[in-house]
Amino acid sequence: MPISDYRSSHAARGYGARYNQTYQSGYYAALWEKVERPIVEELFRSVGGPDRTCLDFACGTGRITNVAAGFFGKVVGVDVSDSMIACAIPIRNAKLLLQDITKNSLRDTFDVATAFRFFLNAEDKLRREALLTIRNHLADRGRIICNIHVNASSPAGLASRLVNRVLRQTSHNTLSVDRMEELLADAGFVVENVIAYGFLPRPGRFAPSLCEILIEPAEKFCKALGVPSRFAQHFIIVATKRPGNCSFLPKVSSIRGVPPHRPLRAKEFPPARHIGTFLKLD
Asked: What is the Cα gyration radius of the chain?
């Protein structure tokens, strides 16, 4: 999807229903159930609790919102797409709001904020606005957990960039760990961890049944073999809100392998709870 007017791109009638179909069968459905959801649940287990709150930014049809509801005392999902919100079925302690909080803030602050399948296709200006908005809605030492679903250095990312170069336009978006880390640092966050996953490249709309069969064994095989994280198509970043005015914050150095600055960051900003060792980069 080209980076153009992302706010309105998901608002078309029926878009929410089509989006939900993405997770009913095929590559993304298998990835979510067998790989991504267990990672998300482990993260929520580490940072959640009955007395803690979560904001799900760009919540869409409530996929992440409803998972978070099982780990936090209060969850609020926000989105600007009526089509997406209309297809959501909030559960238990989750509430969904049709509201653009980059323009009309909430009164509450939260311990954790999530933003899944948003930053890849958003315009760069909107990415920055969203990160600053999320930061303003986080309590002191609050965390953001976000993902990118086409890593620029993965096989799918490299193929997408090649197509863009041939066509001389951005028809397929990609985003690198370095770039996402830079955006987070500029907005006043300190990256704690990057989790790479999805080593089986998505073959477009082809062979959905084969993807469902192969995605979990491929994941285990690549991790056992020590395939570098940069080849994974997806990554989740966990970052902590840094005190102070974000306009004067130093940039965090790029993540390649285990960052040399990670021990210093851990000393300066100790996590509220230990996050599992599976979150380490290669």
From this structure: 18
Q: Name the strand (E) or helix (H) holding 130.
A: helix 124-136
Packed helices 177-186 and 124-136: angle between N→C axes, nearest 10 degrees: 50
> How do the domains of the chain map onto residue ranges?
6-279
Q: What angle (nearest 5°) sits at the alpha carbon of residue 257, between those of residues 161 and 195?
A: 75
Question: 6-279: what CATH class?
Answer: alpha beta
CA distance 28 to 25: 7
Place of tokens 């979990």: 216
Nearest to residue 237, comparing CAs of 182, 186, 200, 199?
182
- Please, which contacts does 267-273 make with residues 24 or more away whose CB atoms are closer than 8 Å? 268/190, 269/141, 269/190, 269/192, 269/240, 269/242, 271/192, 271/240, 272/47, 272/141, 273/46, 273/47
Task: Express each pLDDT in 72-130 by its tens digit.
Answer: 999 999 999 999 999 999 888 999 999 999 999 999 999 999 999 999 999 999 999 99
